[in-house]
Amino acid sequence: MLPVAAAAGLAVWSLGFGLPYLLRSDEDVMVGRSVRMVVEHSLDPLFYNYPPLGFYVFAAAEAALRLLPGQHLGPATRIDPSAEYLAARAVSALALVAATALVYRAGRSAYGTTGGVLAATCLALAPLAVRQAHFATTDSLAMALVALTFWAGQRAGGRGGFLLAGVVCGLAAATKYTSAAAAVYLVVLVLAGPDRWGRLVAAAGGAAIAFAAVFVPATHPLDYLRGLAFLGGRAGQEYAGLPLGLVYHPTVSLPFGLGFGGYAMALAGMVVAVVRRARTDLALLAFVGGYFLASGLTHEVFFRYALPMLPALCLLAGGVVRAVPGQAGMQAAAGALALLLLAPAAYASVTSDRLLGAEDTRQQAAGWLQANAPPGSQIRIGSYWWQPFYDASELGDGGLHAIYATGNPIVDSFQMGRYTDRFSVARVGSPCYALAASGPPWQSPPPGTASPPVATFKPYTGAAPAGAVYDPIDSFYLPIWGFASLDRPGPALVIEACG
Where along the chain do its domains lie? Predict the structure, then answer.
């Protein structure tokens, strides 16, 4: 299938970005803990703000990596972590490919072959889905399990089928709590068919058993409750003056995350679904509404929090074909128009992949320091988010945020940047070089310095990018839309001699 091939190509392109430097936040959380779980033969992820299934899956990928010849697993302070990150990122890439195939199957079942192809293409080209497929986080895995829930629910013909669909739904919730909204989809399917109570009990029981089974090996039930309380507390905080997700996601995250054409088709598909009110229509609409409530009552509006919604919206976009008359000429014209509407999303995804694979400005700064700063130099870095290097003192002096620090030498060795024993990072050394950067997450302009900088690294040529759309609270240093004049990811960064 062409949509699946497109998803695979876009997901794999630039998958090794930045390595051996770590330049994407949150990957340190997933990869460091997954590596420790394999090395120390543990099922405790040592992180309780997320459900544990994502850690299990990434740990399985690291265990597979361990079977390859050579020493691949261990602290990032002693082993090049590139293979460890690639193994985990491969899980996210495969999740996008699987989700695309599942959306095709579900779309074909509900809306015919044309609807299935259109829905799968919409997801395969979605800039948010493509971007997240490159990062070792739980989000793409949750999206794939939500898509699997949709397909399993459609195929369910009796209690056994809904039991299996409930199990998948429980696994989705055990990957990302908000994905539990997929249960609403199953409930609507059950209520629209026969044997309602029997099928409802089967689906609910399957979901509950699967969800509980994932948590039992991880232990620490009170810590997971505290993690939920922590997330609830963050939901009530203000973030950069951003509105609630109920406003932000439908007006920013989704239009740019799906692309304007795909989003327009999804909205049109919602109208068609309201008019037609088929069983699948009602279930998809209920899921979208349920997920909006689950993720929208917070100002913490990461773009990726909207990711599990994309399969449902793409399926609704595929359902638009029902509004087109059945004549061959009309169908062909509608297909051509749909592809034209998805072209901007394809451009954004291709451009994002190309830029992601270019040398990051933090890598450029690291190269300059390695070439020009003698051993023992002090490197002053103002923020964890733009550091190209960290050293043993940052590990030993509690440099990690309390949320992430564990005291375990393997876990805590995975930090932003790259470990060095050549320089003294933010401690006494000579000579001294200070780094300052724009953002996060924005890439311009270069910050001012007290004295003329010895080196400046900009991610763009000419004027700073105008109209670039960034995720304002997630530090990618790469926009999701609007790439004019950009050459690479990373902040605008300057190096100044400080002694």
Answer: 2-13+88-356, 361-497
8 A C-beta contact, residue 246 and residue 297: yes
- Give the mean model confidence (pLDDT) for residues 281-293: 95
Among residues 183, 218, 181, 495, the alpha carbon closest in space to that of 368 is found at 495
Nearest residue to 122 via CA among 293, 309, 305, 295: 309
* 319 vs 239: CA distance, rounded Å: 36
Q: Token pair of 400, please?
A: 């990690």
For residue 436 the two structure tokens come to: 């300052």
Give me 208's structure tokens: 């509950």
Please tell me the distance from the alpha carbon of residue 453 to that of residue 437, in angstroms, as a whole number: 12
pLDDT digit string (tens) for 81-130? 999 999 999 999 999 999 999 999 999 999 988 899 999 999 999 999 99
- Condensed to tens digits (0 to 9), the pLDDT of residues 243-280 reads 999 999 999 999 999 999 999 999 999 999 999 999 99
Judge contact between 449 and 496, C-beta under 8 A. yes
Tokens encoding 493: 């960064």
Taking the whole predicted model, whether its pTM rises above 0.85 is answered as yes
Phi, psi of 237 (to 5 degrees): -85, 160
